[in-house]
Amino acid sequence: MTRVVVFAYHNVGVRCLSALLGRGVEVALVVTHRDNPNETIWFGSVQKLAESHGIPVITPDDPNTAEVLAAVEAAKPDFLFSFYYRHMLKAPLLKVAPRGSFNMHGSLLPKYRGRVPTNWAVIHGETETGATLHVMNEKPDNGAIVDQFAVPILPNDTAQEVFDKVTVAAELVLWRCLPGLLDGTAQFTVQDLSQGGYFGGRKAEDGRIAAGIGAKQLHDFVRAVTHPYPGAFSDIDAGRVVIWRTLRAGDTGRTVAGTELYADSDALYLACADGGRLRVLDATLDGAPLDAAAFRARFGNDPIAL
């Protein structure tokens, strides 16, 4: 039976570990993360899944230590897999498995190499993304592609909704290409890195709404950073306004200097610098719900600049 060591976290880790087990692969060791108490944990637990199957689990702060290397070597894996594990694995670990080390990435490589690829794809208004299994080396997300599967990004999909699709795509990719990996017939395709770029991680502060942003760009930005992420926000004299959900709503017929929030009838709207308009479906002011009635009670009928 083929033996593997799995580095995994998050829903992609859960579903890909399940796929390995479903294909009858022997998982000799799982390396995962301890949940951060300061992070909103909205995803499944790799550790719980592994323990339910009697698989040994370790949760090191740093995987690139002599102790972790020794544990992986003792597991004698044929393959090493990484499924949404948050640390880069260095050469000593990657060389342990004689039949190769592979990573599942949440984009259609070579596009969106690096961190939080789903969020970046939504921010940039992409109409599709997906999951890619590729050879793992010391440079992030640039190894040869084993297989990939595309999923659509609909115009109002949030990043979490897209990530749910990417999770299914990752499971499908792994399930489809595992037989070829196991019997040695899988074909690898070298990436043309000029067809994509590298993107870094995102912080809560990166949710600040940019001055002069257009309506489509703002709509894409809002849906990319909404729940379970910290949200798109602007700080005004009255506090922090967070825009959680919007819909495209035509044009305003006027030009504004930046982005204005205003009430019209029973709804909130955003007027954008390019003349576009968004209907605001969900917003808060300092954590309290902000709808048209609450807006008028606080600010009257005049728009406020974000």
Short structural description:
The chain contains eight helices and 16 strands. The chain is 28% helix and 28% strand. The protein has two domains: 3-199, Formyl transferase, N-terminal domain (Rossmann fold); 205-305, Roll (Methionyl-tRNA Fmet Formyltransferase, Chain A, domain 2), CATH 3.10.25.
Verbal overview:
Residues 203-296 form the Formyl transferase C-terminal domain. Residues 22-173 form the Formyl transferase N-terminal domain. InterPro entries: Formyl_trans_C (IPR005793), Formyl_transf_N (IPR002376), Formyl_transf_N_sf (IPR036477), Formyl_transferase-like_C_sf (IPR011034). The chain has helices at residues 10-22, 46-52, 66-75, 91-94, 117-123, 159-183, 215-225, 292-299, and strands at 3-8, 26-31, 57-58, 79-83, 101-105, 113-114, 128-135, 145-152, 198-199, 232-236, 239-251, 260-264, 267-271, 276-285, 288-289, 304-305. The strands form three sheets. The chain has a seven-stranded mixed sheet, with helices on both faces. Strands 10, 11, 12, 13, 14, 15 and 16 form a seven-stranded antiparallel sheet that branches. It has two domains: 3-199, Rossmann fold, CATH 3.40.50.170; 205-305, Formyl transferase, C-terminal domain (Methionyl-tRNA Fmet Formyltransferase, Chain A, domain 2, Roll). The chain has eight helices and 16 strands. The protein has 306 residues and is α/β, with parallel strands linked by helices. The model has no long low-confidence stretch (mean pLDDT 96). Helix 1 (10-22) runs parallel beside helix 6 (159-183) and helix 5 runs antiparallel to helix 7. Strand 10 (232-236) and strand 11 form a beta hairpin. The N and C termini lie far apart (60 Å).
